[in-house]
Amino acid sequence: MMKKVITYGTYDLLHHGHIALLERAKKLGDYLIVGVTADAFDKRRGKLNVKQPLAERIEAIRKTGLADEIIIEEYVGQKIIDIQSYDIDVFTVGSDWVGKFDYLKEYCEVVYLPRTEGISSTKIRTEQNPILKVGFLGTGRTTDRFYKESTTVGSLSVKSVYAQENTYGYNNDELEYYSNKKEFFDSIDAVYIDSSADKHYSMIKESLENDCHVLCNPPLFLNRKEAIELYDYAYKKGLILFEAEKTRYFPALTHLLLQLKSGIIGEVKDIDISCSQILNNMDNVVKNKYEGSFYDWSSTMLFPIISILGKNIDECKMYSFEKNNFSYLTKGILDFGKATATFKAGIGIKTEGHLVITGTKGYVYVPSPWWKIDYFEVRYEDLRDTKKYFYEYKGNGFRYLMLEFIKLINNINVNNANNKEYCMLFLDIMEKYSQAKVSLYE
Ligand code: C2G
Questions:
Q1: 227-266 per-position pLDDT tens digit
Q2: Which range marks the domain in which residue 323 is found?
Q3: Start and end of every Cytidyltransferase-like domain (predicted)?
């Protein structure tokens, strides 16, 4: 009787540790099946640094000549199904997984083979692209969230805080606090800027002058002139200037935008989108012109609108409800000629934070809070045709943004021109915002 063995892995940048494991796995029986993880499966299980796409990883395994058969692993729970349907006698993986797959003993023999010391895909990736050292220049509401998430991204590490700009009073024993700006910049490769929008220009400029890549909360700039100057400067210096808008890279939003392009609801005619937040201590919130509803939310809200309806806005009307120059509520109506969009943004005010995309064949509904999107429904006239999609995101979602930033720095598969173009368009809309009809908020 032929003895069948199965093993699974990502096999990114295939190395001698992987090969040694496959050789020993093969010796456990007569026929070896290798399960290679699908890209989406790795993303779902939080393995976000994988360099090679599935096709390349499969090809590398094929070339070893060790696998009698190669299959793709796509979901949790598949191992049991595979073991049963391929009639497997032995399941094996490296010793880094000891105990984790004991539940398979019910179905076949489980063997943990000693892992090869001193080599790993992570090590190769790090050698190819050293870990990016990041410092906090300006702290705020997102600083701690950013830090927590950074600890899950192997290729990036937060090291320093510039104490003089720590207006939020961010306290973290793991980080080094600098009061000398030069020393701060020398300790890092990139900055994360979380401060009010009117400070961005000078902070970005100084970071670029000190050879640091920049990740900055939106809006990056207050006008086109500043934006053009610093995007050009960054480009000349070979540095990346990137907007820290995380919703944009959530897996569910990416999938939703692709589905819309393929016409699932016909032609899009209208978008209705809202974001709002009442902060815990509204009384202590810095209330200036640059901290209000529009500045806090515009980039998040306008991204889906512009991605779906395009960049040609015929007309734009805005209303802002303010007190002492701080905007609590902004409402906007955009006319794209063949389609329209309305948006509502609130700070210190609460509204349903949904996203509804109206099309000629049906509509998309993303429940509140849409900016944490992991689920959406595509609905039609006949309710029974409703389709529901769920794409989980890990942690607080910052990691997808960090990875995009790192990819750009390492020059892989990302186009920064897109980023710049969006930034410019936001600035045009921001200019309209300065002409918004202002009513008193009481
Ligand atoms: N491996 C090894 N020695 C190394 C590195 C990896 O023996 N120095 C082994 C791992 O233990 C694993 C296989 O090589 O059995 C593939 O490793 P990875 O590509 O890191 O895949 P992994 O994330 O361990 O996936 O469902 C997926 C599986 O659970 C394992």
A1: 999 999 999 999 999 999 999 999 999 999 999 999 999 9
A2: 247-440
A3: 6-126
Q: Please give the distance, rounded to the nearest whole angstrom, from the Cα atom of residue 94 to the centre of ligand 1.
A: 6
CB 120 less than 6 A from any atom of ligand 1 = yes
Q: Band of the pLDDT at 337, cuts 50, 70, 90?
A: very high
**Mean pLDDT computed over 413-436:** 82
Is residue 354 lining ligand 1, measured as CB closer than 6 Å? no
Predicted confidence at residue 143, as pLDDT, reads 96
Instruction: Return the bridge partners of 416, or none.
Output: none
pLDDT band at 70 (very low <50, low <70, confident <90, very high): very high
Rounded to 10°, the helix 200-209/224-237 angle is: 20
The pLDDT tens digits for 351-396 are 999 999 999 999 999 999 999 999 999 999 999 999 999 998 889 9
Residue 271 and residue 137 share a domain: no
Please state the domain count of the chain.
Answer: 3
Distances (CA, A) of 27 to 139, 144, 286: 56, 49, 66
Picking from 318, 317, 324, the residue whose alpha carbon sits closest to that of residue 292 is 324
Find the 69 Cα to ligand 1 centroid distance in Å: 18
Confidence (pLDDT) at 413: 57
Q: For the chain, give me the number of helices (H) and strands (E)? A: 13, 20
Contact 246/350 with Cβ under 8 angstroms? no
Q: 324, 341, 234: which is closest to 286 by C-alpha?
A: 324
| Helix (H), strand (E) at residue 416 | helix 416-433
How much is the pLDDT for 287?
75
Rounded to the nearest angstrom, the distance between the alpha carbon of 114 and the centre of ligand 1 is 11
Mark whether 282 and 165 lie in a shared domain: no
- Is residue 415 pLDDT above 70, yes or no? no
Task: Name, in order, each residue with C-beta under 8 angstroms of 186's C-beta and a sequence gap of 6 or more.
Answer: 210
Which of 61, 89, 122 corresponds to the end of one domain? 122
**3 state SS of 201:** helix
